[in-house]
Design goal:
- By secondary structure, this protein is an alpha+beta fold.
- 51% of the residues lie in helices and 23% in strands.
- The protein has an eight-stranded antiparallel beta barrel.
Length: 324
């Protein structure tokens, strides 16, 4: 029985991106998520300090002022909660999807499968949109003027107080600056997420090895009438494509055999080569007077060497050929 080389269900993938690069992308996402949280913490701390100064300045004011202060506190609490939810959603989705896709990408680089490639493509689609809704929620919250209007109303209660006017102006300016810092950090995070998605897309199926124009070597019969006989052999590739399909011609030079003179057997060749270098060929005898017999061959291309085995009714053989 001929030795058949089995196709590999998975194979090492030569990708234009490395596992180390994916790990670096993930680390950058974590750093930028932390930067957003830090910016939000700073905004809350600044607002607390400024609100205390404003409250102190208004101490002893009329009851209507106390009502405005209570409204400011309530509106700020609602706004802060909305910002916190948006940031938690943003950083959580970005970090979570990054972990999922980097794990899948690293596995695919190590061992390629078509199923893994399809699964990763679906995960990339989720990853690249991970920041969209949280960013929109954050922008919507910051666009609200409720807190700003509360502060301006407080200023109107004592418009002749220059200290109060200065405190409220500073509070509004710093609040706007802090919000901008958070949005800048959020968009940087989104940029890192999209960069990871782009790197993950660089993981593609390995290319089909390129066959040389001709291969020369020997065949050796391993069973049948001429067991042990070694013949010269030449494989000529006449057409091939990027999908791995090829055609050609195979010539076998055999020595004199008893009452049979030396000669050449010729075969037409059709075959395929996959990304692992596994070759499958069908030889059809086109030798004048001896047409039609077929031989099925399996082989492996490693560098410039193509070797394997073939079988036909009553005959098995092995072959070793090298690119010219």
């Amino acid at each position: 029985m001929a030795l058949h080389l089995e196709a590999m269900e998975s194979r090492v993938l030569f990708s234009s991106v490395t596992s180390a690069q994916l790990g670096a992308d993930k680390a950058q996402i974590a750093q930028r998520a932390a930067a957003i949280t830090a910016a939000n913490t700073a905004m809350l701390a600044n607002a607390k300090i400024d609100d205390l100064a404003i409250t102190t300045q208004l101490k002893g004011s009329a009851g209507s002022t106390k009502t405005l202060l209570a409204r400011l506190k309530s509106d700020e609490s609602k706004s802060n909660s909305a910002v916190n939810r948006a940031i938690e959603s943003l950083t959580g989705k970005a970090s979570g999807e990054a972990s999922t896709t980097v794990s899948a990408g690293t596995s695919l680089i190590s061992k390629y499968t078509a199923a893994g490639q399809s699964k990763l493509a679906s995960e990339i689609a989720v990853l690249q949109n991970a920041c969209t809704e949280p960013l929109a929620a954050l922008a919507s919250t910051f666009s609200s003027q409720t807190v700003q209007n509360d502060l301006k109303s407080l200023g109107d209660t004592d418009s002749s107080n220059p200290v109060l006017a200065r405190l409220i102006k500073a509070r509004l300016k710093l609040g706007q600056s802090d919000q901008q810092s958070i949005q800048n950090a959020a968009h940087k995070l989104q940029g890192s997420v999209l960069n990871l998605a782009a790197d993950l897309r660089k993981i593609t199926a390995p290319a089909v090895p390129v066959l040389a124009a001709t291969y020369s070597g020997t065949t050796r019969s391993t069973s049948g009438k001429h067991t042990g006989e070694v013949d010269g052999a030449t494989l000529t590739i006449t057409s091939k494509n990027a999908r791995g399909t090829f055609t050609g011609r195979f010539d076998s030079d055999y020595p004199a055999r008893g009452d049979q003179a030396a000669g050449i057997e010729r075969y037409s060749v059709s075959g395929t080569i996959d990304t692992s270098g596994l070759v499958k060929m069908t030889f059809t005898d086109i030798t004048p007077g001896d047409k039609g017999q077929q031989i099925q061959l399996h082989g492996q291309l490693k560098g410039k060497t193509l070797s394997g085995s073939g079988t036909a009714p009553g005959i098995t053989a092995v072959f070793t050929l090298r690119a010219n």
